[in-house]
Amino acid sequence: MPVAMYIVLHFEDAEKARGWLKTILPQVTHGEQKPKDLCLQLALTYPGLKLWGAGDFVSHGFAVEFMQGMDRDFRARVLGDNGDSCNRFWRWGARDQDEVHALAMVYAPDVPALHAWADALEAARGENGLVILNRLEAAPNPLGKEHFGFRDGLSQPTLKGLVKPGREADFPEWNVISDGEFILGYPNGYNLLPDSPMIAEKFDPDNVLTSASDQPGFKDFGRNGSYMIFRHLEQDVAMFWEQIGDAIRREQGTVEVEACIQLASKMVGRWPNGTPISESTTKEGPDRPARELNGFQYAEEDLEGKGCPWGSHIRRSNPRDAMPDNKPSSSTRISNLHRILRRGRIYGAPLAPDFDPRKMVGQEPDGQERGLFFICFNTNISRQFEFVQHTWCNNTKFAGLYQDPDPILGIRDERAEGLRHDFTMPGEPFRRKVQSLTRNVHVKGGGYFFMPGLRALQFLADFKTDSPHV
Prior knowledge:
about 475 residues, alpha+beta, four-stranded antiparallel beta sheet, 12 helices
């Protein structure tokens, strides 16, 4: 589905909210469908679950991070949401704004179909007691690139349960991850069932939910659900390439476009067309299908980071088989315990119509907003998304570096002097360091959501807080 919209919802009446959910439930896309006209998914916040009534009757199992929310000040320190990315400047999702209860994720084959669904929802908002807080419309992206000009979404884990018998050789073993890392109700990377929200059997007299396999007397409300992280990220593309140009000018005395592309590729860890820079350090390789661009490792080919620097975006967000001070096998095992299933959509027009970064070097800001709706799924927010964000991406001391956060996200600890940071590239005989970089990705909103399975959605639609069982 080439076009998408994320509709941020608030409900003013719990009974009307249940009625709306019951009406909309047949439209929710399930795994056995391959939709042609429309795809709809629903995700709920913890306040939203409490509005529907179930949040008060889940005895245990919801992630603490999910219940607290993304917009807490102490969580901002974990996520790096400081400066103008602080939640008090967010457009939606902040604690002092209208409470977010749900996110309707709508995908369609064309813009008219997308707008028709969203307009119908808005027309019925009064009878459903809902308030549309924001309509976040993604842009078509046939080239599959993000706004800095790099091919995106190439590195994805393969769920073990989706590997068909006889096709195991098609999937690198190191990239096949336990289903329970992304979907509740299945064994995770520790071969344990992840914590899942449970409801006492008496609250499910119609037997809608599945019985908990490891907790007698309870129903597994979370089974087949997942925690979803949504981040509304604005990208300052002109400033990003201006800083790249300034760095090359300081080194070479003039701005050479190809030198800018190589430096930016070092920061990303891939060339604009997705070629891993650890495989081709001096020039962009030929265009290849996505499945051919993710089979690389670091331990044998680039252990010291002379090809793909330790501090690059893709290496620090997934170190693969080259964790510092670890053998390749243990590095892979550790890395795979912190994987996320990531999907994102861009919004806004590109700075260069064809996303060619060579046309962005030296280009003036055009005053238009553009960015990325970052979405990821995991079953353990703390061990997966927050760990990657805080301990690997934001960490200025990652892998023995000194004041080098992720060069793409550019998040710097505000307790450090100044807000500028470095990017270090190992080399022979000397390392190369780019200094005085600033942040070019800014948070404009977001939240921690729970995407329920179909049984859980049905349970919410039918749940009655005045039932004798309650």
